[in-house]
Specification:
DNA-binding, 9 strands, homodimer, Rossmann fold, two-stranded antiparallel sheet, about 210 residues, globular, 2 domains, Arc Repressor Mutant, subunit A
Chain lengths: ~210, ~210
DNA sequence: CCATGTGAAGAGGTTCACAGCG
DNA sequence: CGCTGTGAACCTCTTCACATGG
């Protein structure tokens, strides 16, 4: 239980968490690594290893207590608090995200939205009023924002990213289909939907794939 | 140049492809692995290794010809053709995807959309008429569809996935925040937006992260 | 006896380093 | 001389296997 955590482990923890929430809702109070591994499509040793990187949550001979393990994972992932999220770009994708209930459900609140299209500025997305992207620095210096979602066209993404990083943002979810070059202190996750379809098309064409 | 291709390589090829398209547009006709690695944030040996898994595309002492390399990667990824894509679920996310230009730009055409909401059935998303999800099997048996995008709620995803797999679909892009359990002959890519935010929140809380 | 937690072994992917060739 | 292509070394993550404890 030490220092370097594989990214893959973090992503699996999210999946375990979601599954445990579901199982807890069904009244299950104990689960073995074998069972959890089966429903998530990983080996039981993978489950145990992932969890053991953060502590000992189970009981030998029995398994893991569902509600408690869920709480522990929530704590590990930082899901026991609210996160203030900003959005840049309210095109089709950005607008859909403002209405995406899973974010809010997990404590990620989109608290502000920006765009550079004069016709959109001032319009609303639910409760949110779209602001001028020119005002983004002023806003970020006054209001606390934990992470930013970029849903802007590819040719604007790098510029916008640098701007928000300059305002102290250290976590970015990037929907633009381009790789951002940012200092290593900034965490970036890409949500590149075309790349995922391309991975599928590759798989269909080359049935010798992957891992 | 042989058999097993790492998934990570495939995903990087997509990024190289996009970058090469951009550089070609700027009139660049040759690029070294060093330069391409720099702009994509990977090592030059990584670039060379990735490409060498599929052939020899470069010239020693010079680098890679941009337009030709782009064409070669397009061929490898299956981007030199059109793909017929179906969509299930035209809520916020699904609707945004019907209007997402990057898909079409890369040859992924959403040719049909389904939903189970009577108020949505018959309505239009651009040119697309939303069909009743009850008719999905009938449709898939008549029309050729290469891959399906699932943008349905988590509690319906598994059922819908099994249904389309039963109709012969072998590639699924899953936006539902739940792990699908499907036969290994089916390629699934998850686009789990909450998980990505959770990876960011973990990173912010534990500045010792990843890899 | 059952299932966890973990050191050791095994796979898989990345980086190194250099031979080879334009 | 410069840069590719590639086997070998390295490193990271996964799986194995078993000691441990309820």
């Amino acid at each position: 239980m030490g220092s370097k955590i594989p990214l893959a482990t973090v992503l699996r923890l999210s999946r375990y968490y979601r599954r445990l929430a579901h199982l807890e809702g069904q009244g299950m109070n104990t689960i073995s690594s074998k069972k959890l591994g089966e429903v998530e499509g990983v080996t039981s040793s993978q489950v145990r290893k992932d969890l053991s990187l953060f502590g000992s949550f189970g009981t030998k001979g029995l398994g893991y207590p569902v509600p408690e393990l869920k709480r522990n994972i929530a704590y590990i992932l930082g899901l026991d608090r609210k996160w203030r999220v900003g959005l840049v770009g309210v095109g089709n994708v950005g607008s859909a995200l403002t209405a995406y209930k899973e974010f809010h459900k997990q404590g990620f609140d989109i608290v502000v939205a920006f765009d550079n299209d004069k016709r959109k500025i001032g319009s609303k997305r639910g409760e949110l009023v779209v602001r001028d992207v020119e005002d983004i620095e002023e806003y970020l210096k006054q209001e606390k924002v934990d992470m930013m979602i970029l849903a802007v066209p590819a040719d604007q993404a790098q510029k916008v990213a640098e701007k928000v990083v300059g305002c102290g943002i250290r976590a970015i979810l990037n929907f633009a289909p381009i790789s951002l070059r940012l200092p290593p202190c900034v965490f970036v996750r890409d949500e590149n939907m075309v790349i995922e379809l391309e991975a599928l098309s590759f798989s269909l064409m080359n049935r010798r794939l992957i891992e």
